[in-house]
Amino acid sequence: MEKQIFNELQELKNLTLLGAKKALTMSDCALLTGLSKSHLYKKVMNKEIPYYKSDGGKLTYFDKSEVEEWCLKRRVKATDELETEAATYCVTKGKKGGKNV
User: Fold this and answer.
1) For the segment 51-77, what is each residue's pLDDT rounded down to a tens digit?
2) Distance between terminal CA atoms of the chain?
3) Average pLDDT, the chain
């Protein structure tokens, strides 16, 4: 029981520190995104996620706001949004007197 409480307190500490950081390590970025470190390494190697290298090139860092933006860049519209867009398109197309395809 004590070990579980200790682990939960440690996790809270890590999350609190993560909230205050601007520059993230690979471990921080994994915690923030929910991706494994190996998956992040693949993203870095394929240049699929914005990152920074240390002077020696051995350490990889991430800008927290850039990672959050990256996580949110592929928004999928909800069904009601798509239905509204489709209805608007149909009404607009009909008003222009366009031919149905």
Assistant:
1) 999 999 899 999 999 999 999 999 999
2) 67
3) 89
